[in-house]
Amino acid sequence: MSNLFANQAPLLRTKTAPAAAALIASAGIIYGLVLCCINSLETFAVSFLAVLLAAILALWTFVRMAVKENDRGLLVTGAACMTAIIIVTVMPEGLPASFHVYRSFVAAALIIGLCVATLCSAVYRLLGSTPVAFDNSRYPILILPIVIALISYGMILFVLCLNGLPQISWQLISTPYDPANAALRGILNDILGTFMLMLLTSIISLPVGVGAGIYMSEYGGRIAGIIRFSTMLLRAMPVVVLGLAAYGVARMAYDTAWQGILAPDPTIMIGRGTFLLASAFLSLLVIPVITRATEEGLRSLPRDLREGSLAVGATEGYTLLHVLLPWSLPNILTGLLLGCAEVAGNVTVIVLLCGFGNYGVTPFTEATSLAHFIYKVMFADRSFRMSMGNYVYAVSVILLIITLGLTIVYLVLRNKFAERYRAH
Amino acid sequence: MPATVEIKHLSVSYNGTNVVKDVSFEMPAGKVTAIIGPSGCGKTTLLRSINRLSELTKNCRVQGEIMVDGENVLKMDTVLLRRKVGMVFQQPNPFPKSIKENVLYGIKAAKIKTDHSDIVKSSLQKAVLWEELEHRLNESALNLSIGQQQRLCVARSLAITPEVILMDEPASALDPVSTLKLEESIQSMKGDVTLVIVTHNMQQAKRVADYTAFIYRGELIECNETEKIFANPDRSETRDYLEGKFS
Ligand SMILES: Nc1ncnc2c1ncn2[C@@H]1O[C@H](COP(=O)(O)OP(=O)(O)OP(=O)(O)O)[C@@H](O)[C@H]1O
Ligand SMILES: [Mg+2]
C-alpha cells in the first residue's frame, strides 16, 4: 500500500480546501444566527450560498484527489446548496413587509443547516478522514443546539437583569408591603414567604415522599402499584384543579376550628389560605417527585451491599437506615431541589390563597410569594399595581437568584454525599 | 464457639426446578470444609440456604433440615441466625463507610456493648489486615485495594464472633498474593470458627480445607477428608473432575 498522499500537489497536502470550507461554514452559522435578528442582512444570502457552494465543490475535489474517494455526501450537500440558492432567489420579495421577514428566516434556516453539514464534512477531512475523526467531526451537530440554547438563555437573563437589577434596593427587599401604610412598599414578606413555602413543603413532603419511595422499592405488590398510579395521577392532573381545591378547603375552614390553621385568622376575605394550607397543596406536586427520586436511588443500590448488611445480622430496619438511605440521599436531594424549584415558581396552586403578605410570615398567616407578586401586579387591585408594578423585573431577578443559590447549595451537598456514601 | 453444621436431605428449587437435590453431609465444628464442583452445580445456592439469604430470592424454595449447633436453621429468627452464621461474598462488598465502621457494623447493628477498639484490632488481625491498616482506620473502605477489601469483609464478619463463616469463592476476584493472604487469614481462624468455603480452585481447597465436598448437578457425589478426596476418591466422577476431564 503506497502512501495515499505520495503523488499529491503540496497545496492539497496542506489541506487548504477543508480548512477554508470549515471557516466559511463556521462563518455561515454565525451569519445564519445573526440573520434571525437582523433581517435586512438577508440581501447577502444568495452571494453567501454561492461562496458556500464553491467551498463544497472545492472540498469535494480535494477529497477526490487526496483520498481518492467520491464523497457522495458532499455532492448531496452541494445539490442542496443549489436548491437553496434557487429557493431564496425565487421567493417573493417586495410584497408586504412580512414576506421580506419570512424570506430571511427561510434563508437563515437553510444556511445554518447547510453550514452544519459542510462543517462536519470539513472537520472530518481536516482531522484526517479516520474513523475516530468521523466521530469527532459530528460534534458541530451536538454543539449547535446547545449554543443556540445558551444564547437564548443569555438573552433572557440579559433582559431580566437589565430591567431588574437597577430596581433592586435595600429599601425594596427589607420592607414589607402594607396596603394601609404608604411607607411600607417592599417585598420582604414575599421573599420570606417564598422561603416559608419551601420550608413547610419540604417538611411535609420529605417524610411522605421518602416513605412512599421506600415502600415502593422495598415491598412492591398491589399497594405499591396503587401508590405509583396515584402519584402519576397527581403529576398528570391539571394543576389549576389543585388551586381550586385549595381555595375550596380555605373557604370551608372559615369559621370552623381550622380557622387560624388553614385559613388566616384576621380574615379579610373568605378563601384566603395560610402558608400551611398552601404548602400542603404544593406538597401534592412535590411528593411524587421525591417518591420517584427515592425509589430510583434505592433501586440503584447494588444487591451485594444490602445482602452484606443482612449477612452480618443487621435487621431490615437497620439496613434501611445505615445503608439504603445514605445511598439514596443524593437522589432524595435531587427530588427535594426539583420540589423547591417548583414551589418557588408555582402560582397556579396558590393563586387564590395568597394575599399581600401584610400579616407577617408564620405558618398560620396569610400566604404570599414572589411568584404570586407578579400575578398580583397584573390582576390585584389598582393601588398595588400603581405602587409596585415597576418591580416585576426586580422580583424575577430575585427569584432567579434564589433558585441559583438553591441549586448551588444542592450541588455542593449532593457531591459531598455522593462522595461519602458512594465513591467510585 | 465453633458449631457443627449438618445438612439433612436438603433440596432447593427455583421456580420448581430442583438445583440442589437431597444433599446430606456434615461440616465439623472448627474445621474448614471446601465445596467444589463445576459452575452452575448449585454451590452458591447451597451456601445461601445455610444463612437463609436464599429467602431474598423470591422464587427460591428450600426443603429439608439444616442444623447449626443442633438447632434447625429454618426455624430460627433470620437476624439471630445471621449473627451466628456470617458470610463473605464472591465480590468484596464493603460499605461506603470508614474501615472502622465497616468492622463495627455488625456490632452496632446488634447493639452489643463492648470495647470497640479491641474488636477492631482483633478482627483486623485475624483477617491479616491490622499491620497494613492500623493507621488508616478512619479512611473510607472504598479506597482499599480489592484484596484488602475482601479481607476487610472477612474482618467484618468476624467481628460479631460468629460460629460459622460461609465464603462463596472469596478469592475469585483476587490476585495470587491477595489470595495467599486470604488463605493465611483462613488458617488463623481455624479452630475458632467453622468455615465453609466454595472454591473453583482445587489447589486452594487442597491448601486450606480439612474436608472437601464434591457436588455435581445439584447432587452430593462425595464428601470426605481433603487428602482422601484428592489422593484416592471413592467415586470415579470425583476423579474425573479433579483431573479436569469435565468442568
Ligand atoms: N435466582 C435464580 N432463579 C432461577 N435460577 C437460578 C437462580 N439462581 C441460580 N439459579 C440456577 O441454579 C443453578 C445453580 O446456581 P448456583 O449459583 O448455585 O451455581 P454455582 O454452583 O454457585 O455456580 P458458580 O460456580 O458458577 O458460581 C444454576 O443452574 C442457576 O442457573
Ligand atoms: Mg456461585
Small molecules in complex? adenosine-5'-triphosphate, magnesium ion
CATH superfamily of the largest domain in chain A: MetI-like
Overall CATH class of chain B: Alpha Beta
How far apart the termini of chain A lie comes to 46 Å
The coarse silhouette of chain B is: globular
Which percent bin holds the helix content of chain A? over 70%
Strand elements of chain A, count: 0
Task: State the helix count of chain A.
Answer: 17
CATH 2nd-level architecture of the largest domain in chain A: Orthogonal Bundle
Question: How many domain modules of chain A?
Answer: 2
Supply the CATH architecture of chain B. 3-Layer(aba) Sandwich
- Helix residue percentage of chain B: 25-40%
CA radius of gyration of chain B is 18 Å
What proportion of the residues of chain A form beta strands (DSSP E)?
under 5%
Helix and strand composition category of chain B: alpha/beta
Radius of gyration of chain A: 30 Å
Spatial arrangement of strands, main beta sheet of chain B:
6-7-8-3-9-10
The outline of chain A comes out as flat
> What number is the mean pLDDT of chain A?
88
CATH topology of chain B: the name is: Rossmann fold
| H-E string of chain B | EEEHEEHEHHHHEHEHEEHH
